[in-house]
Amino acid sequence: MPYALFPTVLGTCGIAWNQIGLTGFQLPDAAAETAAARLTARGSDPRVGQPPPGVEAVIASVQQHFRGELQDFAEVELDWSQVSHFQRTVYIETQTIKAGFKRSYGDIARALALDRAAARAIGAALGANPWPLIVPCHRVVSSTNKMTGFSAPGGVRTKTRLLALEGAELLSE
């Protein structure tokens, strides 16, 4: 699974792939070395590869998205073999959340016909998301609309920045 690093207006992103689809995505990091280390820690090859045309198209879309030209990544080919059935179900539901909108962990649980207690499991699945932005886990917030639990570089600050970029309504205390 080779990977490539690429610049965006928000920092260096990384993307990994195989013949099936994307195997990983790294949100912007200030240092290219850190982005590379995060991808390889998740199992990507420690070698840089030349992205095939489909991956190049995703890179261009990510760059446009971060410039404010919002993109929909729902059709991006992903290698689902690395996630559980439950995670895949959560990620597919999460992909239905359009830019500028948010849903709660409980909303996702209800959409999957699960009880409210499943919200924690939803959060755990999203915390393990190998494709942040492509599977827009940043669009999932607490039931009180608070920015909680975001494991990407920059944590909740990055989550808030992505939501603001997409025009989502953000509340301050």
Tell me, what is the CATH class of the largest domain?
Answer: Mainly Alpha
Sketch the major β-sheet. 3 strands, antiparallel
Order of helices and strands: EEEHHHEHHEH
What's the CATH topology name of the largest domain?
Arc Repressor Mutant, subunit A
Q: Which geometry do the CA atoms define?
A: globular
- Order of strands side by side in the largest beta sheet? 1-2-3
Helix content: 25-40%
Termini gap: 44 Å
Question: Strand percentage, roughly?
Answer: 5-15%
Uncertain parts: none
CATH architect. name of the largest domain? Orthogonal Bundle
How many DSSP H or I helices?
6
Q: Rounded to an integer, what's the Rg over CA atoms?
A: 15 Å
Kindly report the name of the CATH homologous superfamily of the largest domain: Winged helix-like DNA-binding domain superfamily/Winged helix DNA-binding domain
Instruction: List the domain count as a whole number.
Output: 2
Sheet/helix structural class: alpha+beta
Task: Give me the count of strands.
Answer: 5
Write the SSE topology.
Blueprint: E1 3-8, E2 11-17, E3 22-29, H1 32-41, H2 53-66, H3 85-94, E4 103-104, H4 105-111, H5 119-127, E5 140-141, H6 155-165
Parallel strand pairs: 4-5
Antiparallel strand pairs: 1-2, 2-3
Helix pairs in contact: 4-5
Offer a concise description of the structure.
The chain has 173 residues and is of the alpha+beta class. It has helices at residues 32-41, 53-66, 85-94, 105-111, 119-127, 155-165, and strands at 3-8, 11-17, 22-29, 103-104, 140-141.
